[in-house]
Amino acid sequence: MRRLGSVQRKMPCVFVTEVKEEPSTKREHQPFKVLATETISHKALDADIYSAIPTEKVDGTCCYVTTYKEFFWNIEEDFKPVPECWIPAKEIEQLNGNPMPDENGHIPGWVPVEKNNKQYCWHSSVVNYEFEIALVLKHHSDDPGLLEISAVPLSDLLEQTLELIGTNINGNPYGLGSKKHPLHLLIPHGAFQVRNLPTLKHSDLLSWFEGCREGKIEGIVWHCNDGCLIKVMAENSGVLSFYILKTKWH
């Protein structure tokens, strides 16, 4: 399978969304939900969603492999301060050299993970900085039906984005490791293709999420031919939803 898209901007929902005034079941202290309607969005149609490759949306935290200390960035005073060495995600639009917020007011970006920074200790646990390798979960090279953990050179992952999962990430939905023996791994975005997906209808997708073993995932990301990424997520309640992640906003 061809190398699929990297996550360099907020992914839009495959359906048109609407706000419902009731507490979110996933985000504490958020008094509303952003729910999917039954109408496929114009962005999804423009990206030829019907020809896209559906993949599992892994429940972790997003990471990006690139060379370090090549960038310098200043944020205008009307944006929240960002850490030193912050760089904007590649697909963020810029005006006069300044990153511009997307339609939701976000400016996603990256901060480097340094091995002595305790704030990012679980990120650092999957990387050997001396040998420049990372622990990556992927399909077995000889049997695609199996998964394997491999030590992959960082040079092979350059400019890719990956999801960090494990014991201390997002409540550990995959049951990896233990408090005494934590385990964390990286998964390249688009690594796990979704098979036998139903038709692209709200009711059919909702039934798939609720009623079959393959549907017990956080969501789906479609990788379109033009590089666009479109997603849909499933709440524990079974309602198809699109969540606006809090990164940097105006």
Automatic annotation (TrEMBL):
Q: Does the keyword Lipid biosynthesis apply?
A: no
One BP annotation, GO = response to reactive oxygen species
Q: Does the keyword Nucleus apply?
A: no
Family matches, as PANTHER family: CHROMOSOME 28 C12ORF29 HOMOLOG, RNA LIGASE 1
Q: What is its EC number?
A: 6.5.1.3
Q: What protein name applies here?
A: RNA ligase 1
**UniProt xrefs under Pfam families:** RLIG1
